[in-house]
Design goal:
Immunoglobulin-like, 2 helices, 6 strands, S100 protein binding, ubiquitin protein ligase binding, Calcyclin-binding protein
Length: 133
């Protein structure tokens, strides 16, 4: 990982690597302090093999993966929708979970739209698109 930053003194860089996180602190760069922290990495690293190298125009952070393979992202991301293969589960539950995730992750306009649709559906205000066929 590269951090573009000039005027860094190697002695003023603190690095803490843990199996699932990293925390890099850079002190007194032209009177400012910087920090790069990733509290939950995508997968495990080997802290003893990780290092920080200061170059004239950037800082190079080398992380050593504990297992082979490509990382989709450096940050760990929770799956918002986890597929369920329970045969006895209500088929509408998957749609309800999807709507819940959209509501929780949406902006204010999205929340208003979903809330209105939900209220209309529960009160019977929505027209049946198949009525009259």
């Amino acid at each position: 990982m590269y951090i573009s930053l000039e005027g860094v003194d190697q002695d003023k860089v603190q690095a803490e690597f843990k199996p699932m996180s990293l925390d890099i602190k850079i002190h007194d760069v032209q009177g400012k302090n910087y920090r790069c922290a990733i509290p939950k990495l995508h997968k495990e690293i080997v802290p003893e093999k990780c290092k920080v190298l200061v170059k004239p125009k950037r800082i190079v952070i080398t992380m050593f993966k504990s297992s082979r393979g490509n990382w989709v992202d450096i940050h760990h991301k929770e799956d918002k929708i986890k597929p369920s293969f329970e045969k006895e589960k209500d088929p509408m539950a998957g749609i309800m979970d999807l709507m819940k995730n959209m509501y929780e992750g949406g902006d204010e306009e999205m929340k208003k739209t979903i809330a209105k649709a939900w209220t209309d559906a529960r009160s019977g205000k929505t027209a049946d698109p198949l009525k009259g066929l």
